[in-house]
Specification:
The complex is a heterodimer of chains A (253) and B (129).
Chain A lengths: L9 E8 L9 E8 L6 H12 L18 E4 L2 E4 L13 E4 L6 E3 L2 E2 L2 H9 L24 H8 L9 H5 L1 H5 L6 H11 L7 H8 L13 H5 L6 H21 L3
Parallel strand pairs in A: 1-5
Antiparallel strand pairs in A: 1-2, 3-4, 3-5, 6-7
Helix pairs in contact in A: 2-6, 6-9
Chain B lengths: L19 H31 L2 H10 L3 H24 L7 E2 L2 E2 L2 H24 L1
Antiparallel strand pairs in B: 1-2
Helix pairs in contact in B: 1-2, 1-3
The chains are: A alpha+beta (253), B mainly alpha (129).
């Protein structure tokens, strides 16, 4: 890898730090990082850890917006550290904070347990027509037309980075709300032609904590780094939920 | 023993002032207050109409009050703001597929504006004719 050109320019980066062993509450620490045009926020964090303060903690893995590990707040906006660049802020200061609406584990690392639990709750797997009625492997693969795939593909692109939860004031105000990514994933399975679990999942959708916890702020779709558009998924589920309610009025179970 | 001690940040009550996107959202939602006031005034007018000409003319005269005019101008501005922002969000709630392709966002938005214009013209015709 070629060494970046040293320009002698410096950018100030404020980081909200929290060390559970010694701190009662988070505090801000400022670091001076040598600025290069092609440096990402994640690379700046790595520079800080390697050269300035080895105690700083942050999550990362792939460096290419696939793993969804390096989500953080950049000047108050949820972003992936690997997909945000110093050049878009320089020469102004950058402030980094852990993802909003999640508890802080340490420094820029948040506790995502609640988010993971919600992803599991929405039955994120293909449910066959009837249990015991599964298609035998010898009968070949489940076929799907490009059109059938197009109906759900967008909602299947989620990398579980949690930026949409950090962008959602409804989740921030009350974390009982199922939230954008989990509901988008739910829509992904409900819209899949191979899946027959819609009736089971509608019970989650119809709840107050389901789609009706959403007031269509729409910021989740703005911050999504993969173009999933969870706000659209939720509005479409609201339509389905309304239909479900109307049909339920005339058809007792 | 675990050294874990997760720190939960409080959401400040002015959270919607710190991000322009949230502020715009709150204006969109807040428009409902003025639109409710407008609807109540209009409903009051209908009630006065049922009580005869004198009552109705009294209501009409009360609308000439500068405060009432300002209130109606604010309600109009907010209603237009709500309409424009709502129309721009409409494609997210529409799932129309034609020949295997999702209907383009622009088509859905222009459809909303076209309906809005036709409805406005029809209402104006009913009032003026």
């Amino acid at each position: 890898m070629s060494k970046p050109v040293e320009t002698g320019q410096i950018i100030d980066i404020d980081i909200l730090r929290y060390r559970p062993e010694e701190d009662k509450k988070p505090f801000t620490q400022t670091f001076e990082v040598p600025y290069t045009e092609d440096m990402s926020i994640l690379e700046a964090l790595q520079h800080i850890k390697d050269h300035l303060d080895s105690t700083i903690s942050f999550r990362w893995s792939c460096r290419m917006a696939i793993c969804g590990s390096c989500g953080l707040m950049v000047n108050g906006v949820p972003k992936l550290g690997c997909k945000a660049f110093l050049r878009d802020y320089y020469p102004k200061k950058i402030s980094l904070e852990p993802l909003a609406n999640f508890p802080i584990e340490r420094d820029l690392v948040v506790v995502m347990d609640d988010f993971i639990k919600k992803l599991e709750e929405i039955k994120p797997y293909i449910i066959p027509e009837k249990t015991g009625d599964k298609k035998c492997l010898s009968e070949g693969p489940h076929k799907q037309t490009p059109e059938q795939m197009a109906k759900y593909k967008q909602f299947s692109m989620c990398i579980n980075c949690g930026l949409c939860y950090a962008a959602c004031p409804q989740y921030g105000l009350d974390n009982k709300f199922t939230g954008p990514a989990a509901l988008a994933l739910l829509a992904r399975y409900n819209r899949d032609s191979r899946d027959f679990g819609e009736a089971q999942r509608m019970k989650i959708v119809n709840q107050e904590e389901g789609v009706w916890g959403c007031t269509f702020v729409g910021y989740c779709s703005v911050v999504c780094p993969k173009g999933v558009d969870p706000a659209a998924a939720i509005q479409l589920l609201k339509v389905e939920s309304s239909k479900d309610y109307l049909i339920g009025m005339f058809k007792p179970e | 023993m675990s050294k874990r001690k997760p720190y939960t940040r409080e959401l400040p009550s002015d959270w919607w002032m710190k991000q322009l996107f949230y502020t715009k959202y709150m204006i969109r939602e807040g428009s409902s207050v003025f639109i409710t006031l407008y609807s109540l005034i209009l409903a009051w007018g209908v009630l006065r109409l049922s009580q005869g000409e004198v009552a109705f003319n009294g209501w009409m005269a009360s609308l000439q009050n500068p405060l009432m005019i300002i209130l109606h101008l604010i309600a109009l501005a907010l209603a237009l703001y709500h309409t424009i922002t709502w129309f721009s969000l409409a494609p997210k709630a529409v799932d129309l597929w034609i020949k295997g392709k999702r209907l383009d966002d622009k088509v859905i938005i222009s459809g909303h504006y076209a309906t809005f214009i036709i409805a406005t013209i029809l209402c104006l015709l009913i009032i003026t004719l």
